[in-house]
Design goal:
With about 120 residues, this protein is mainly alpha-helical. It contains five helices and two strands. It has a two-stranded antiparallel sheet with strand order 1-2.
């Protein structure tokens, strides 16, 4: 099922936070979570090679980082990160639920794609 690999994380996404030996586990968890949150649309976008596939892959990488931060207890140390015009915010801790932080990441990457639509 896993479609995002370490090369995607390091090369395309530019990730450095998740240790290489841990990335596969966090990426798999991120993929399964995102697929559930999108009612299977994320998987369909990846499988079909949709124009949204790169956004889905980036979202999976960002979720893997979020899960890594949450699991290691470092989630509330990164509140905002900006590189050029791109930014990421982890809102865990201090009264914000893990699901709210996850939703924030998903909306950052998938807003406007229709993949997060909860209706019919």
């Amino acid at each position: 099922m896993r479609t995002v690999c370490l090369n995607d994380y390091i090369g395309t996404f530019g990730g450095t936070l998740v240790p290489e030996e841990s990335f596969d586990a966090f990426a798999l968890r991120a993929e399964r979570t995102l697929d559930a949150d999108t009612f299977g649309r994320a998987r369909q976008a990846l499988d079909s090679g949709s124009i949204h596939a790169p956004a889905v892959k980036n979202c999976i990488c960002a979720l893997a980082e979020l899960f890594y931060l949450q699991d290691t207890g470092r989630a509330d140390t990164v509140q905002k990160e900006t590189v050029g015009s791109w930014s990421r915010t982890y809102l865990c801790g201090r009264g914000v639920s893990k699901s709210a932080a996850r939703r924030e990441v998903e909306e950052t990457f998938l807003a406007g794609t229709g993949l997060l639509f909860r209706g019919r």
